[in-house]
Known about the structure:
This protein is of the alpha/beta class. It has two domains: 2-57 and 121-288, Rossmann fold (3-Layer(aba) Sandwich), CATH 3.40.50.300; 66-111, Alpha-Beta Plaits (2-Layer Sandwich). The chain is built from eleven helices and eleven strands. The model has no long low-confidence stretch (mean pLDDT 92).
Amino acid sequence: MKEIVILSGKGGTGKTSITGGLAFIAEEKLVFADSDVDASNLHLILQKKVIDEIIFKEGFTAVINSEKCNGCEICYKECVFDSIIFKNKKAKVNEMFCEGCGLCYRLCPQKAISLNEQTVGSILTYETRFNSILIGAKMTTKRERSGKLVSEVKNAARRMAEKFQSDYLLVDGPPGIGCPVIASLGNVNYVILVTEPTLPGISDFKRVYELVKYFRIKTGLIINKSDINLSLSNEIKEYCVNNKISLLGEIDYDEVFIDSVKQIKTVAEVSEKMNITLKSIWNKIKMEVK
């Protein structure tokens, strides 16, 4: 089983739409993972129904029993994260700032503070419209640790891929270069980068490629909206040649990306031209990961 992650340095490049299109045209056994846990949306175009949900907990938050608190202010003075506030001479925890370190819990003379395990989100298993499995997640509001949740999503997807003896695990990665992206790169065989010929697009593409290069993962590139600025497209292609990045394909600007969202379908279902283009790209990807 080969693991492939699709990344983009910025949002809005068409990464998820391309992933959905590959789900439609691929004839091999595939399992999908949506590791953009802060704003997952691959399920919107792929899902048929939710077949499982597991609550994911990670880390702790301090909770203060106001009836036991005598207002001594020890927790307030010692908290380095400024997560303790006072109201009506009683301590209260600001969950947005609490890191769950437990110092206040250990110092409180009244034993008024406890540590509650955080519910970071839930891991969802979907049956897709294309007889495949998608693993995604739903983050709880006001919670961090999305990198840990990404790792759990990928672990669940790997187990599912092994169970069904899938040929490929295709991961729709998060945008940017932060912790969730790093988590999505673990044990990956191949990275597909999606960019567009704009100045922000090129800048973010180069940043995410430098991250991928650090992990020494073989990389290919798809240029979306390639015809909107031919000069910048040529600059991207020259960068690929200089850095030995395989050019998997170029996709012209096409409003099918908008139409497919409106119809809640993949771009390959809505457009025959996109269907043919993505089949060509998928064949190149398979050659790259052999």
